[in-house]
From TrEMBL:
It comes from Agrilactobacillus composti DSM 18527 = JCM 14202. It catalyses: a fatty acyl-[ACP] + phosphate = an acyl phosphate + holo-[ACP]. Signal peptide: none annotated. This is Phosphate acyltransferase. Coiled coil: none annotated. It comes from the Bacteria. Catalyzes the reversible formation of acyl-phosphate (acyl-PO(4)) from acyl-[acyl-carrier-protein] (acyl-ACP). This enzyme utilizes acyl-ACP as fatty acyl donor, but not acyl-CoA. InterPro entries: FA_synthesis, Phospholipid_synth_PlsX-like. Its EC number is 2.3.1.274. One of its GO terms (cellular component) is cytoplasm.
Length: 335
């Protein structure tokens, strides 16, 4: 198994990338990591280069670059070369913490879209309050606008991933809407509801509301990319703000509050662990011909390590090949 890695993408590159890769390398003896980036920066970070191959390039796609133009103009960028390695068959999967739009463009235009999939979707795994399983949200930003057919395919792909990679039997699929009644939402959501309901191969539970999704009503929550991205950032921002408020108030409060905080230390740790999204890995660009995983730009060593575990699982289980077979043998076509 070979994983192609953009070592120069993200706020903490290449240090966090290389540290996470080395940790994964030590765990998976069947995996070689193809690291694309500046050798002068990468090599000193390696404590052991076993099964880590450096592919030197100094060209980088930055956060300010326009996504599609950058992957066409910067042919030697670390991100582009990593994606190209997958297209050429040199690697089995592609990973980056870099410019989200450019990662999506690389996945769609270089790795390539599965023929039967109308629009690939970006799919993170997010926490739930009552369980440790979390839920998949898609699309979380690959497509700003959508059609009912896209939402239907997201439900099918998300359900397949939840069962194959996360091990959830008969995963529950919910459609994010502004009410739980079947006739809620705009025309696209009403049509998507009917498409999902009509497919007896999936466990569609109906509409779910944003106020309830962290309670885990569904294992997969389907939405358009604009709404999904807003929901994702709202959850991340709220979790970060709450932890900041708690820490600030405890530090600034009097002795009694600090003593109480000390007694509640384990409870606070559990809350922090619950919203530790790093352990779920990165966001999968599902609907392309090979595993493509995008981690947060601020990812640290742990985040990269868990993303490597996620990719290893997808490649080992041949998840994408199964998705291709699943859609090829079905009635759904891209539109």
């Amino acid at each position: 198994m070979k994983i192609a890695i953009d070592a120069m993408g993200g706020d903490n590159a290449p240090q966090a990338i290389i540290a996470g890769v080395q940790r994964a390398r030590d765990e998976f003896d069947d995996t070689t990591f193809l690291v694309f980036g500046d050798e002068a920066q990468i090599k000193p970070l390696l404590t052991d280069n076993t099964r880590i191959e450096i592919h030197h390039t100094t060209e980088v796609i930055t956060g300010e670059d326009e996504p599609v133009k950058s992957i066409r103009r910067k042919k030697q960028a670390s991100m582009v070369l990593a994606a190209q390695a997958v297209k050429d068959g040199t690697a089995d999967a592609f990973f980056s913490c870099g410019n989200t739009g450019a990662v999506l463009a690389s996945g769609i235009f270089i790795v390539g879209r599965i023929k039967q999939i109308a629009r690939p979707g970006l799919m993170p795994t997010l926490p739930t309050i009552n369980t440790d399983d979390g839920f998949n949200l898609l699309d979380a930003g690959a497509n700003a606008s959508s059609k009912a057919e896209y939402l239907y395919q997201y439900g099918r792909m998300g359900g397949f991933y939840a069962e194959d990679v996360r091990g959830i039997k008969n995963p529950r699929i919910g459609l994010l809407n502004n009410g739980t009644e079947y006739d809620k939402g705009d025309d696209i959501h009403k049509e998507a509801y009917q498409l999902l309901k009509a497919d007896k191969a999936i466990n569609f539970i109906g509409n779910v509301e944003a106020t309830n999704i962290l309670n885990g009503p569904a294992d997969v929550v389907v939405t358009d990319g604009f709404t999904g991205n807003a929901v994702l950032k709202t959850i991340e921002g709220t979790a970060s703000a709450m932890m900041h408020i708690l820490k600030h108030n405890l530090l600034e409060s009097g002795l009694k509050v600090k003593i109480g905080a000390g007694l509640s230390k384990n409870a606070f740790k559990k809350v922090q662990a619950k919203f530790d999204t790093a352990r779920y890995g990165g966001a999968v660009l599902i609907g392309v011909k090979a595993p493509v995983v995008k981690a947060h730009g601020a990812s640290d060593e742990r985040s990269v390590y868990y993303a490597m575990k996620q990719i290893h699982e997808m490649v080992a289980k041949k998840t994408v090949a199964k998705v291709i077979t699943y859609f090829s043998s079905s009635k759904t076509d891209s539109k």
